[in-house]
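Hey team,

Filing this mostly as a record. A colleague (T.K.) asked me to run one chain through the structure pipeline before their review meeting, and I want the input and output archived in the tracker in case anyone asks later how it was produced. No errors, nothing strange. Just documentation.

Input sequence:
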Amino acid sequence: MERIVVALGGNALLQKGDEDTAESARRSARRAAEVVADIAQAGYEVVVTHGNGPQVGRILLQNERASHVVSPMPLDVCGAESQGQIGYLLQAAIGDVFYERGMDRPVATVLTLTRVPKDDPAFHEPTKPIGPYYGRDEAKRLARDRGYHVAPAPGDTGWRRVVPSPRPYSIVEAPVIRRLVADGVIVIAAGGGGVPVVEEGPRLVGVEAVVDKDLCAAILAKDVEADALVILTDVEGVYESFGTPEQTLLSRLTTEEARRRLEAGELGSGSMGPKVEAAANFVEGGGKRAIIAALQDGPRALAGQAGTHIAN
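Output structure:
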């Protein structure tokens, strides 16, 4: 049985145009669950991972609004909270779909830690904006009182906190996830890139940082010995000349061609670029294939009928 990691886009639980409510999150989780069930029903062992941008942003905003009543939690704790929140919604929705279809597959969420290098240069140059917008004076106060790194947001919209985005290199719970998925469990893991931790001797210490979810998905897929990495997003795949009248879907890419396009800046740094880099990383690290496709096309993409397929 082929083992795959299914990476759901950051808006899997908050569709564009939806209100940020528990009800809309449940609806979105249900849509994702139907796709995961279709893939599992086709005979695959499945590990699910997901983004957490909208959700952890919401948690950070709640942190700030309640800071005069309770102490704000650090970013690693907020990331863990978002894993539990999203994992619960997906786990419940997938379980419901399986029950309705008469499928006997257990589902479990694993709170996941992601190792990052303690000496990653990103720790010296925080660039990833998180949390709410502040006025200049408030941002400077938070920098002084809490030790935040702050920077002006684009477009003169205010100031935001910025944190490091170190590169992941291994998943702490990978041995547990491998055992679970081998026993037929649908495992939800490494949500939002996992909680970043550094090694201090035998201890793992959480750090206030953000791990790119796509790069983490590639590490997760490698560490759980997956055959394929499937990144499901809100577009049909990788396009040449995206956003222009000449845009063309690239149905096949070699890792060499993917690297060339990345280096040429053809795929963008903030959207498709990290997904293609993650796909190439996975295949170059020993994976058989990687696929980038729209959420609703997941089963068809695995059958070779949709999306962009990246292989050697």
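Quick notes for T.K.: The longest strand covers residues 128-134. The mean pLDDT is 93.
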